[in-house]
UniProtKB/TrEMBL annotation:
Name of the protein in its database record: Carboxymuconolactone decarboxylase family protein
Alphabetized Gene3D superfamilies for the sequence: AhpD-like
InterPro entries assigned: AhpD-like, AhpD_core, CMD-like
Record organism: Fulvivirga kasyanovii
Ranges where the Carboxymuconolactone decarboxylase-like domain occurs: 12-94
Annotated signal peptide: none
A Pfam family of this chain: CMD
Length: 145
């Protein structure tokens, strides 16, 4: 598969807007490993090879284990994730698959119990930004490096 076009060259304001969203996400001060797990899981669900590769590499750089990275696609079947991480991953999945019924009350309440309103809002934003990046990358056929 060949990349369709250079999106940044075609319309640089798109990356500018997306990068501003990433800057805001970074400014929240969320646990970086948790953010990478959320980004990785959303990208897996969306089938964005470019983003899966990127988020796995970024997570490894900050000390995430390969075992957990390999297992994130089936996090519910492994003992490698804390209850809070499980709540964040479930929330990210339901945000990513929003057309399948939205975010359930159970998922939302579980996340609230672990994180509180501010962090839940920030995690939803993290999943939303990642989904936007995924849609751009998939539409352009961006290739993992």
């Amino acid at each position: 598969m060949k990349e369709r076009m250079d999106l940044d060259k075609a319309e640089p304001r798109i990356y500018k807007a997306m990068n501003e969203a990433e800057k805001q996400l970074s400014a929240f001060g969320l646990d970086t490993k948790l953010v990478h797990l959320v980004k990785l899981r959303a990208s897996q669900i969306n089938g964005c090879g470019y983003c899966v590769n990127l988020h796995a590499m970024d997570a490894r750089k900050i000390g995430e284990t390969e075992q957990r990275l390999f297992a994130v696609s089936a996090w519910w079947e492994t003992p490698f994730f804390s209850e809070a991480e499980r709540a964040a991953l479930k929330l990210a999945e339901e945000v990513t698959q929003i057309s399948d019924g939205g975010v359930s009350d159970e998922t939302f309440q579980t996340a609230l119990g672990h994180f509180g309103e501010t962090v839940v809002a920030q995690l939803i934003f993290a999943a939303t930004v990642t989904n936007s990046w995924n849609r751009l990358a998939i539409s352009m056929h961006m290739m993992a490096e």
